[in-house]
Amino acid sequence: MFSRFPILATPRGPSPRWCSLMLLMFFAALLSASGFEQGHEDEIIANLAGGRVIIHVARDVILFAAIDQPVERDSVPPRVMKLDASHIGVLLGASEWRIPADPKPIRIDRDFQRVGANERRTHAAPGEAEPDLDAIGITFLEKLRPLVGQLHHKLNFVPNDPIFQLVIIGYGSDQYGPEVWVAEYRMEQQQIATRGEYWQTRILRPRFTQLYPPEKHAPRTLVEVRYPADLRGPRLSELIQGNDPRVVQLASREPRFTKVLENLHGGQAQKAAPLDSVDFMRALLPLVANNAPFVMGTMAEQHGFEWIVPPAEPLEKVEQDKNRPPEAPSLLRKPKP
What we know:
Layout: E1 7-8, H1 16-20, H2 22-30, E2 44-49, E3 51-58, E4 61-68, E5 79-84, E6 87-99, E7 102-107, H3 131-148, E8 164-172, E9 177-185, E10 187-193, E11 198-203, E12 207-212, E13 223-227, H4 236-241, H5 245-251, H6 255-265, H7 274-288, E14 294-300, E15 304-309
Parallel strand pairs: 1-2
Antiparallel strand pairs: 2-6, 3-4, 3-13, 4-14, 5-6, 6-7, 6-8, 8-9, 9-12, 10-11, 14-15
């Protein structure tokens, strides 16, 4: 007799956002599936991270923020991790897994050791990434594969809905400049035994989409990634372009904020002054997060990753860049009230 390993998520209750996402519906549906009990020691549970990732590529620095918008009662926040010396990643979707018999969760962001080669840059085909980013994507694929492989019950999911999503933010080599990618991981199932309804579940290679830089001559403004994709509410770029009163009032307080806003309005976000952009975004985020927790940080080509608003949970020890001189400048500073 085969053991069955359902993937579970506990819903918070009906909402338009919940009902509109088929991926999350299949998690909720499994709660009532016959023959499955939450107390079974062999069950594997995926805790989903939902929310918004906002990226502002300013002059000489990339600002990013992740707003926590739970999709279920036991959601985990979007987590940020260092991928290599020039990239960080934000994890969305099934980024944490639990086996009830083991109190320690399986976190996808832990024990990250990149596999693959370092060569770059080539002309990648649509849906693919450069070799170094593809190696990062394969590392997460190998971590997810044994977890997803434990699912042997028929799952009613939409094939195009990703179970896991990785936002890659950083700088390409060979003077490529700032870049933002999203890697989406999907699943597929095949019935391999009719007796007992035994299904084989496997996770597919990630599908990459480059979000920054945009096409030539396209405006350069904020980039935003959402999980699930149909989270309700306007994007921050839409609020800025629509002259939302909160944004306008904030910018009117200081001339330097007005200049940042002008750059964003004009599609020239890459020209905005770095420190002014940090202070502007730090002051703006609480106004648009609607009391939701958020983190914020910077990624710079010369001095790497730094927190502006760190996560509330204990921080992982970040490996310091050995090539960074002690006197290197920092963008980490307290915003003006």
